[in-house]
Amino acid sequence: HNQLQHNRAQPKSFADMGAKAVATVLGGLCFVIAIAINSTGTEKFGMIELKETVSVTVNGITFNGVEFEVFQGIWLGRTIVTVNSKTEEEDPSPVYCDEDEDSGNCAAGKDSDCCKARASKCKATKAFGVLAAVCSLFGTITGILSRPGGAIFALLTALSFLIVFAVTSSVVEGEFQSDGALNKDADCGIKDSLFQGQTINFNYAAGFGISVVGSFLALVQSGCYFAAVESYTA
């Protein structure tokens, strides 16, 4: 009788063992990706980026051919400015979700639906960026002991990545202007932004891409755990 129980506790096949191993590896990759997206804004690595050459007027003096590089992350942002072949690189600075406050720099006005939505979206990317890291770590550890637990945490990881890149996309694709005026609606964003009367555009950066990959890998990880559950309970 004891031998029978022992046999039932063993994996049914190498496929079952492989599913668990793959899930563990994917969980580790998801954790690395989660740490990476929370580190965006350092060096030339962001969720979104801006690379434009514009004219800048300061105290009545106009500088032509000024090259701007902006790397916006979840927690940090970095700006690199080149004027007359001289480059000045700023240290990474914190990203404050203050679009709806006096200290914010939201063009539509802090009391507008646009700026309130922008502040909420900023806070959401921070919250779910952290949640992606926590869930991916717990999913990998829990999955070693409990496959259903691992699957649930993997699904939460996928959802967290999904929300991060979906919210980021809504900001990048949202219109800065509407009918020739500033877009003050909640669906506003930074598409075709204005800088001293010149149109500039932010693009998706590496951090955005790996968050999409992270969501997919976490879904596959969850599927591997579910497959292992079925083979153990059959």
Provide an overview of this structure.
The protein is built from five helices and ten strands, in the order ααβββββααβββββα. It is α+β, with helices and mostly antiparallel strands and 234 residues long. Strand 2 (61-72) and strand 3 form a beta hairpin. Helix 2 packs antiparallel against helix 5 (206-233), helix 3 (113-145) packs antiparallel against helix 4 and helix 4 (147-173) runs antiparallel to helix 5 (206-233). The radius of gyration is 23 Å and the shape is elongated.
Note the main attributes of this structure:
disordered N terminus, 10 strands, alpha+beta, 234 residues, six-stranded antiparallel sheet, 5 helices
Secondary-structure blueprint:
Blueprint lengths: L1 H7 L5 H25 L9 E11 L2 E12 L3 E8 L2 E4 L3 E2 L18 H33 L1 H27 L3 E2 L2 E2 L10 E3 L2 E3 L1 E3 L1 H28 L1
Antiparallel strand pairs: 1-2, 1-10, 2-3, 3-4, 3-5, 6-7, 8-9
Helix pairs in contact: 2-3, 2-4, 2-5, 3-4, 4-5
